[in-house]
Amino acid sequence: MAVGQTRIWFNGLRITSAGVVAFGLVLVCCPGFTRRAFSLLVYASPDRLDGFGAEAARYIALVHAVLGGVMVGWGCLLYLVTTRALSRGEPSAWSWVTLSLLAWFVPDTAYSLLSGYWQNAVLNVSFLALFAVPLWKLRQRR
Prior knowledge:
Blueprint: H1 3-29, H2 31-43, H3 54-86, H4 93-114, H5 118-137
Helix pairs in contact: 1-3, 1-5, 2-3, 3-4, 4-5
């Protein structure tokens, strides 16, 4: 693969990793927006989660914030592994990124589908695709 093409795929991974961080920060810093967005995603109504009551809304905000914090940490690690180890050709780096994505995707998506929240599974597939395409293109560098 040409150097220019390789750079495009590495940049794609960097941008997507930074996107994970940004998404996590939105979950932490914008609880009202996040709750309304997920309510719209899951129930096709931005106000449905608010109908669960004030205590439930506060707990949902806590869960979103904890999830956001985890995503910030995971996104930072993905960014560092991509920019440092993977771009230098570290043989294990491709596997590290791929394993972390699968370790998130499989249980999260399986539970989403089993519990009837297929909308989250669709969101997961979209997120995974942003990583999978560049990882697939860079697989021979392992």
